[in-house]
Write a structure and sequence with these properties.
Pfam families: ABM. It comes from Putridiphycobacter roseus. This is ABM domain-containing protein. One of its GO terms (molecular function) is catalytic activity. The chain is of the alpha+beta class. The protein has one domain: Alpha-Beta Plaits. It is built from seven helices and eleven strands. The strands form two sheets. The chain has a nine-stranded antiparallel sheet with strand order 3-9-10-8-11-5-6-4-7. Strands 1-2 form a two-stranded antiparallel sheet. It is globular and about 50 Å long.
Length: 269
Amino acid sequence: MKTIKSIKIVFVFAILLLSSCKERTQEKESIISADITEEEHNDKNKNQNNTKMIQVIGQFEAKPEYREEVKNALMKVVKGSLNEPGCIGNRLFEDKHNPNMFFGYEQFSDEEAVAFHRNQSYELDLIKIAEYALVTPPKAYVKEKSINGLVYRESKSEANSKELIVIGLFEMEQEQRDKVVAQYEKQVPNVRKELGCISFNAYTVLGQPTQFAVVEEWKTEEIARKFSTIDKLSIETGKVLAESLSLPIPDYLHELKEVFISKKMAPAG
């Protein structure tokens, strides 16, 4: 057990109160991270060694009749944050198989940067829209830190259409999650060696002992599929994950299309 100072973290797309303003005791979160290649990772790790950085993945499901309104509001937030000094960058995605589902990934330099963002007009406008336009309240998956750091990628308006980006948001018993984390401690460096992998990250979620997230980016879908079917450790990892979940693995996965990326930005994990 580890005592950590709770903070109010507001996701760039919606204010989500994730903890109280007093100190509390909670289990230390573990995060496993891997990037383009081990050599490139070691060279660029210095770019993202800020222990105060707040990194969040957010999930938003719009009601069908409000899809465009939600998307436009999210775009305004992403573009507006370009001028925020403490916003390192953020990315906006659509689920390829559910056009009403959006995911965002953001990085803030510290709590002060989050507080500044929270008071911007485009953020306040989105909060109002979210009250009536979403199927359920937005969800936030907060990372404590990245053990191996993350690699920045250059700014661009859209991702390469051939890239495969997948987010897995898993729910399982804590005992099973611990077993999965142990397996991914072997799997992460294994995937890192594959040159076709842009980014591969796995982490537990702050304050949620039953959740586990995996985010991966590949140069092409073909490379990813081939690796997952012939690599022995990947096959073993798939079996461990399947045994730990109550639903089939595909039910937890979201294949994404990138809508926008602002500033220099680390991979989506």
